[in-house]
Every structure is written in C-alpha cells, then in structure tokens.
Amino acid sequence: MSDDPPSAAHPGPPHWRLRIGATAVTLGVGTRTVAEGPGAGVPFSLAETVQALHRTYGAAARSGRRRSTGVPPPALTRRLGGLLAEAVGEHAVRALTAASRSAEVKGHGLPLVIEAEPGRLDSLPWEALTLPGSPTPLALHPTVRPYRGFGGHHAPPPLDPPGRSLRLLVLLAGPRRSPGHREPLLDLDAETARLAAAMSRVPGRADLRVLSSGSLTALRTALAERPADIVHIVCHARPGELLLEDGAGDREPATADALWQAVRGAAGVPAVVLAGCSTASPVNRAAVPDAGDHSRFLPGLAQSLTEAGVPAVVAMSAPVRDTYAGALMARMYAGLAGGRPWWEALHDARVEQERLRRAADDWLPEWYVPLLYAGPRHRPGKPDPTAAPPVRDPAGSAAPPVSDPAGSTTPPRNTPPGDTSPEDTPRGNTSPRHTPPGTAPPQAPFTLPLGAFVGRRAHLRLALNVLADAGGGGLVVQGVGGVGKTAFVGELLRLRASSGPLVLLKGPLGPDDVLRGAADALGGRTDDPRLRELGNPERPWPARLADLAHLTAAPGVRGVRTRRSTPGRTGRPGR
C-alpha cells in the first residue's frame, strides 16, 4: 500500500503499514521500514482459539443463546490477542507500541493498514492483537485505528465534496424461506428502524433510501436513478455468497462479481457495507492436498469487491448477531455523516457498542468481527454505451420524503399524499397502461421516489403473495387516514411490475362502474365482441365478470382497494 503523507485529500497523521507474510513481517510508514522480523506462522494454539471463538459466535448468531466452550469468550479474545502478538513477532510489536505511544503524546490517532498474505494469514482476526502492557486490542485501542488493505490500495476516501449529505442506499434481503433450518429470519423492520434513528442524529446531513426489494435488479435500478455514497446490504451470507432475493422474493445467491456488476455505474462506484455473517471470510478451496499451500484459499466477498474497484468495504469476519451488526453500522453512519474518516467512524462505533455490552453484562463481545477494507483510488465510472437509459420516476427529482421506521411517509412536494387518491380523478375514470413490446413499463401511479417508501416489508410480501396466487382474489388495504395506504399501494404496484392495463377508480363505486372502467382500459388491446358487452347493464353481473376474466387472462388480474377506517366509529368505511 502507498501510505500518503497528510494532504488535503487525507488530512491528519500518516498511515502506518503492518505487512504480515509467511516469510517476513514488516512495520513501516510512508516509504520507510521501521521494523522487520521473521515470517508469521499459524500454530495449533492460535488456530484452535480462533475456531473456538467462531463456534461460539456461530451458535449465538443462529439461536441467540449462549454456548459453553469451557472458556468464556472474553477470556478467549484475551488469549487470542497474545497469540496474535507472538505470531507477528517482537520486532514489529515493540515498534508499533512505541509509535502508538508517540501518537498518544501528540494527541492524534495512528491509522494502521494491515496487509496480511492471502490465505490462512489474512483470515486471522489481527484486529484482536494486544500490545505489551495494554489489555486493549487494536480494534478498541485508544490510539491505533486498524483497517485492511492490499498492495497498491489507498485509504478509504472521504465524502466528495466534503460537507454534503451522506447518500445511503439500503438493500434488505429476507427471502420467503429461511436459508437454513438453523438460520433465523432477519428482522428487517428493526434494521430499518435502527438506520432511520441513526440518520436522524445528523439532520440535513444524511439521505436515506431503503429498497422494498432485496434483489440486485432493484439495486441496479436505484443506482441508475440516483447515485449513492454507500450501499448497505443486510442479508444472510455464507463464504463467497450473499443470500439475496429474486423478483419473487425467493432466495437467490449472489457472488462478488454479480454485486460488482450491479454497483458499478456512470456516477462512480459507491462504498459497500455487507452486514451478513462471514462476508469477509476467505473461501476454502477444496481438494488440495497440501495444507500449507495458500492457493487453496479464494478471496472472500469483501476482498473480491475491493480488488474489483470498490473504494471501501465493511464486512464481517465471522458469524455475528444481526442486532450487533445493525447497531454498529447505524453508529458508524452517524459518524460518517458528521465528517469522520472511515477508520475513525468504525472505531467510535466499536468502542461505543463494547461499552454498551459491558454495561448490559452481555456475555458475547463482537468487536473484532467487523472489518474495514480499503480499495483502490476512487475513480468515476464510465457510462456503458450499450446500456438502456433508466426509466425515471416523474417525482424522482423531488426532495426525498421523511419516513418513520414503521413505513408512514411524508411525501415530498408535488407528490400525492400517502392516504389520498388524486382529487382530479373522477368516478369511473381510468388510466390505461399499455407497454409496447421491448420497452420498460411506465412508473406506477401513487409511488414515492424509488427508495423513499420505508418499512412495511412483511405487509408488502404478504400482498405480493396474495396477488401472485393463481387462485387468489383481490386485496383490500384498510387503515386510518394518514398511515400511507395509497403510498403502500403505489409501492406494491411498482414491485408487481405488471405490463398490463391499470384501471384507477375513485369514490363510491358499483359493479357497473368497475366493468365500464375495465372496458375502457382494454379498448386498445382487443377487438373481441365481448368487450362491448362489459358495460351492458342489461346483462347479469356474473356473465359480464366471466367475460372480463376471459378478456384479461384471469391469472394475472387482481383488484386492490384502499379504504379509510375511522377509530371509534362503526358502519360503512369512509372510502
């Protein structure tokens, strides 16, 4: 790594570099080597301590219950810190101790990039290393600020330009079926609430968008519409793969290459935060006889993304409880939005979460699990001349709404309120929507800007399942005024992405009004003589409804209705 001296781009102290290899370990700053020693090994005691911790964390992440390992996790992490120091060697450890004390005297931190040789060495939690005379690991050290890097990579860049809002795009994936019989479903609404609360601590400095779909297609569309500084992904994961969603909400594994193809774009590459378990773990390549051959390890998701060109990646090196990961990331984002560098923001979040853990007498410390990876120098992406222009939301240029974690949304200017249909839509008026072959469907009505509808994930999933059921009927969305019924329906229509005609009706309606509206919408799509009979009041309703089912290929036709309920009153709903 090229350690830049203080500059306008990276003000503050120089970044030190700890290179850990099988043949040599060096500590340096800039172009100067301060200490050098023999290569690091992985003795049995070190490997077994790491495995014992991973088994404990894996059990906690799956069930939240404490698992007895014979040694409490805090004692295991203390033992681990000493074993890692022994592996690095006394030359580098003593020099790093002296440098940290010098930085403390000068009143500033010591950013430290750790470059560990790919394979067994870079899979070790070097952030847990403890320096002589200090029980505090590097991850929580009062002076040292560790992060990971590779040769030729630079410190994670600050926001550009400084002082503007932090643009955070959140993708939450909770497939309809749990990824494993031992894996709990993620509480995505709680995750959204934590992020919204964190952004509220820095009013005016954060722009939060939360996608209602956990698919790479939704991510790609959102980035094409408006760029982001950080893409935050919450999902289950396994080494080398994220467990995301497809368009139907089912599980769809995604590799680092697939994610890279989704985030690269004309407006530059955002940083990526992977809140899934083991997203920083290298992949063990099977069927290699030589256990000492480092080529048997493949890079993990985080390493692959930084090598591809992502400027910064935060990922998890082991199984982690989603409550810890969510709270830690929310705290880190508040720091980034407040102008803190990446390594300082992550350090502050780690220290605060560890303080809260000790105050609550929580048995499982998780401070060493999150890792920060530095990517190459940030370069704006180039437009893809073969890519089709994105279909933009007519309201996409409006200011994003302010949303609460439950999904109630205050629309931006020029956006219809979330609980009312457009007042200029007369009873029986229709809005036919016909998509010519080969073109993208137009924006559904009532929708907020993409990513502005926050929460209601469980309700959206339930509604989509009802509408997708071939044997299902319609859907009624009911609630008191102002809870966002119309915005909910707009988001539902966006996710459903049907290319057929859309009929919008408002006010007290009878069957004749519905049938006439359907006939108007279908008028440009078919010349079937049954179309004229839909609006014939002389024919009985069952016969006309049967004709409508045939005309519209019934499996794809569903009705969605909103109505207002008034607390404390009984009788007919207001709508």
TrEMBL record:
Q: Where is the composition biased (Basic and acidic residues)?
A: 525-536
Q: Write out the biased-composition intervals (Pro residues).
A: 434-444
For this protein, the parts annotated as crossing the membrane are none
Where composition is biased (Basic residues), the residues are 560-575
Q: What is this protein called?
A: CHAT domain-containing protein
Question: Out of the domains of life, which is the source?
Answer: Bacteria
Extract the InterPro entries matched here: CHAT_dom
Q: Where is this region: Disordered?
A: 376-448, 521-540, 553-575
How far does the signal peptide extend, from start to end residue?
A: none
**Which species is the source of this protein?**
Streptomyces globisporus
Residue ranges of domain CHAT in the record? 84-353
Q: Quote the Pfam families the UniProt record gives.
A: CHAT
